[in-house]
Amino acid sequence: MIxxxxxxxxxxxxxxxxxxxxxxxxxxxxxxxxxxxLELRLAEHLGVKHLICVAxxxxxxxxxxxxxxxxxxxxxxxxxxxxxxxxLLWEGLTPKFCDINPQTFNLAPELIESHITDKTSAIVPVxxxxxxxxxxxxxxxxxKHKLKVIYDAAHAFGVTYKDRSVLQHGxxxxxxxxxxxxxxxxxxxxxxxSSNEVAAKVRLMINFGISGPNKTEGLGxxxxxxxxxxxxxxxxxxxxxxxxxxxxxxxxxxxxxxxxKLTFQKTNAFSSKLFSYMPVLFDTEAELxxxxxxxxxxxxxxxxxxxxxxxxxxxxxxxxxxxxxxxxRVLCFPLMADLPKIVLEILGKLLQKV
Length: 354
Ligand SMILES: *Cc1c(COP(=O)(O)O)cnc(C)c1O
Description:
Elements: H1 12-25, H2 33-46, E1 50-54, H3 57-67, E2 73-76, H4 83-90, E3 94-97, H5 109-112, E4 120-124, H6 135-145, E5 148-152, E6 160-161, E7 164-165, E8 172-176, E9 189-193, H7 196-205, E10 210-212, E11 215-216, H8 227-238, H9 240-258, E12 263-264, E13 278-281, H10 285-297, H11 310-315, H12 321-329, E14 330-333, H13 341-353
Parallel strand pairs: 2-3, 2-4, 4-5, 5-8
Antiparallel strand pairs: 1-9, 6-7, 8-9, 10-11, 12-13, 13-14
Bound molecules: pyridoxal-5'-phosphate (PLP).
């Protein structure tokens, strides 16, 4: 059986050596030395100023909303994983769904202003499948209306925009290091910001607001990453160049096999190559289901990321027609560092019949 992705497992002995270090130190969590090492290495690898590791991508978003003091309404994309919206609702914020561009699958910047009211405090766009949003236009709208911008960048690990990390954009960008993601720490995530003040606040917030013995500054939560997760991250990070290269090669192979039979996501002209997911757009949902089912007969499980559109999930109605139409026709083919050749062979044969 071949699933849509496969967790990358690093060298076991290397991981064990880190576990030995954890047992020797006796420190399993609370900003231990491995979490500190991982934060420094990730910030350097990605080219960002402050990177704070947390327990999940969802907690990264929740802490980001709190750290920036969001309230009222937040404009966001309905074409995303549930967490982008569920975290807003969990924090008592009201998501306002703005439709997407049918080619890039990202929030359509020209539609954002029509959703702004006197209750709006922020915009939470998603770099869908790692494809950078129109970051300059979104920032201009945010500046004009004094709104915060938090990018859900869960898919954008290692993605650059105009030769700099796309994670440098917005007041905060968040990552997920869940084991299904290209870089993972079993469970985990990170908060990225260029602001010293925001970074300091986030560090307090992820540990109950505790600033020293007998001292608590403001409200916090437990969102800390532990040492075993950081150890996994350090091992996976050693191999990230190889993982990315392999996945890039598989994307190129898919592109060749698919040719002009299906439509690809329109990627930002200023971005680096994407290799987090392998999304394609079918002409109709019926064709999508036909190919998906034919693959399943062969033990290959493509996934309908993202279906249904989140406006339908969380508001019980279609608010964004483009997102709904796209979500019915997008399918993600399996993508992993060591994609079995058989997937491309079978897909090639199936597409000849479409
Ligand atoms: C994976 C993902 C998340 C959630 O991350 P977790 O680490 O699983 O909490 C949030 N947003 C998007 C777009 C994701 O794909």
